[in-house]
Amino acid sequence: MARLTINGTTRDVDVDPETPLLWVLREQLGMTGTKFGCGIAVCGACTVHVDGVATRSCVLPVSALTPEQAIVTIEGLSPDGSHPVQQAWLELDVPQCGYCQPGMIMAAAGLLAANPNPSDDDISAEITNICRCGTYNRVRVAIKLAAADNDATRNG
Amino acid sequence: MTRVQLSRRHFVAGSAAALGGFSLGFHVPFQAKAAADAAPAEVPEINAWVVIHPDETVVVRVARSEMGQGTLTGLAQLVAEELECDWANVTTEYPTPGQNIARDRVWGSFSTGGSRGIRDSHDYVRQGGAAAREMLIAAAAAEWDVPAAECQVEKGVISHPGSGRTTTYGKVAQAAAAVSPPAEVQLKDPKDWKIAGQPLPRLDTRDKLTGRQVYGADLVMPGMVNAAIKACPYFGGRLAGFDAQAVTGMPGVQRVIQVDDTAVAVVADTWWRAKTALDALPITWDEGPNRDLSSASIQAMLEEGLDAADAFIGAEAGDARGALAGAERTVSAVYAFPYQNHATMEPMNATAVWTPERCEVWVPTQNGESSLAVAAEAAGLPVDKCEVHKIHLGGGFGRRGNFQDYVRQAVGIAREMPGTPVKLLWTREEDMLHGNYHPTTRCKLTAALGPDGEVSALHMRISGQSILASVRPEGMVGGRDPVVFQGLVLDNPEGSFGYAVPNLLIDHAMRNPPVPPGFWRGVNLNQNAIYVECFIDELAHAAGVEPLAFRRRLMANHPQHLAVLEAAANGIGWNEPAPAGRHRGIAQIMGFGSYVAAAAEVSVTDGQLRIHRIVAATDPGHVVNPAQVERQVEGSFVYGLSAALYGECTVSGGRMEQENFDSYQVMLMDSMPEVETIIMPSGGFWGGVGEPTIAVAAPAVLNAIFAATGKRIRTLPLKNHDLA
Ligand code: FES
Ligand code: FES
User: What's the CATH code of the domain at A50?
Assistant: First the structure.
């Protein structure tokens, strides 16, 4: 059993405590926006926010989380895709296959929450998600576009 | 304007009008259900490509798969262009492979690979749009009792100027569905395009920003169980045994199932529990006949081929061997390209439900018809008792086309649990160990260089693996694999060699290690471009001639090849000095029917490579969506440079050594250069977009590295070399 606060709602989940948050989201809670890519914290497809910090959920057992910690997933970043990062992504038509994009968007939103005006080097250092389709340059421009939106520090 | 006769096959209206009816007796995933609801069966299709609802929604049916390359949007643009509908009303849907077969393959091929999505179907999808337009106009004209020729249409509004009457597609669609298709239609001249040719946003972006896009890995069905699988990691090996008792009591575990003679799967209520139990399952492998296979033994096998007497000829002019034997000065070099894994971000998966009467599969696939054939075979049922539902792919790159191993496995597991939907999802480790790898080849190039830098002879000997011999033996021509010579053959619309060398021999010593090869984005153009373009650069330096001028002389007979090369070189500022500390390289090739070139600017500081900029130029003949072409060029560079910089799958003890992204490194944001794309369609042909440019990034960068360091990198990946 784990008690988790996800997208503003606290709930009890009947689950083996060692289960990674990723699989609790995807399988117990039906929130499949957060993706499985590698399972070893390398690719970033599973990125969510824990207390505002971009976190790879595939290696984070739910036993390590408390109900006081606020978990935000792509489904909760905004109710309707209106978060500045999502809006910038839409304007620049960033996704290709899209599979890595929820993780990319969460990583970008996490970066902007901590650093509202990231430099190119900041972006390169902080966004280490893998995109096999190769959307990196548009991701970079979209982060800058979202940064120009003064609402971007809003955190889900 | 082109007048075309319509082939009857593509234009006969189906008896089952709309596609909505998934009345197949199984639960369907929510997304498919939603699509079915959106297209209620009472709305008749105009023809196989077009359904128009009373609310003016235009549903364009797309047979090719969307895997990120934008083909869904591009093909819809082509249909909508001829249809003359309002683009704002356009949505898309996939017909199923079963429907295609039931309707005499009205949608043609479902295969999505070889950069063929648009170039192989533009004619009949445009005809489909044009025929639907004529039928809609005819229906309005009949209602008004005026000649159809007096009617006009714009953005889905039909008007008759003589009488001032107007109506809309949505209002006449029902009547139009009953109109006989025209015997011939006129296709627009691309210069008159308003929807096609425009940099329109993709139709499939929004759901990818909110997590709503459902991939195969995300499917949930009522009563569904989850399977995790391990197949024998040794090439040619088998499953020797496993101890199911050891895991049967573990949480959620329902079954431990042997899948054919190579794999074992654990089925549980959740995938995480299935995987956890699978990891705990004691398994023994029969390593099979290849346990001594290693990267070193494969290299030795290929090296032998470099000088072997027998080889298949791909291109020949004059007498290369004789000219080289008598040449005063020859230059020679050996290059090598390693195995690569596709590593799509979404691991392989398929969801299947089987009963003795019927089998259905939901799968991200580049070829729904291949999936259907494999599903039927694995199900032990006739094809018409099976169906495949295509789902957007989380990356394809060639892995999800010919190879439907995951479908075979999913159906195999589902057969053990009749009536229960089973979702099979691979781990990344399974994906890395069971690839259909980009084949490995080596290449020895020898050229005769004259006193003024003229190349009088060139012998290019490729030694290595054939994809077709393993994957599609029926495509072999007299024992020869023509795909090995991508970009290297003479006067071929798919990809001509761009240099005129009077004595030329390009041949292939086929050496097939027991590692399964596959089509990997760009296929053999990847390494062929590196071999040719780096070696040409070597020759230019050996001759003391600047590399662009050196190429120009060899390319006089290939103006289209030269045009893209000049454009890329101009774009990078080839004629002006590079900024301090930066160095440049160029490359060109033709492949997948398009002319492509790149110019790269790099610096190397204390052995650290930084790629600053790449300018790409491409002439694909016609361009349907320039914004998507730009994205494909950028994306292809990431894929190609990932391979050149980091990518290699190495073999040890008869299996691959890399199991995840920690050991199979790929390019990240921090090493991504700026990319500028010059799109220069010259018309008159239809070339591909998704793949060709992948091939020029690596040689342009390698040539720039030589300019920066004097080091000639001939074996990839670059990470194995010290640039300091
Ligand atoms: S799935 Fe978590 S980082 Fe890759
Ligand atoms: S958009 Fe396909 S992996 Fe990033």
Answer: 3.10.20.30
